[in-house]
Amino acid sequence: MECSSCSMHPARQNAIQSGAKVPPAENKGKNGKTFSHFIVTKNFNNKTLNQIISLWLLRQAIPWNQVEYCYLQAAFHYCEPGATLFKQKWAVL
């Protein structure tokens, strides 16, 4: 008797029957969603991104002029193409 989530791994059921303690399958969580432990938000908020980045920069003691670093900006554009950093606004920090 195999469940649908175990059909992808035929040896899983045999291992369970022989006494192996295996972690539950991904779809056996609270509500069956893989990412159920992340906070769900409706829309991307550019202001929140800038607040998080400014706190990170303060904690790391990195000056804002290093935000111009091309790889760092590429990472932001990968996360959210419309994201812009408020470099001049936060420069007083």
UniProtKB/TrEMBL annotation:
Q: Where is this region: Disordered?
A: 1-30
Q: Which domain of life is it from?
A: Eukaryota
Annotated protein name in UniProt: Uncharacterized protein
Identify the species of origin.
Answer: Puccinia sorghi
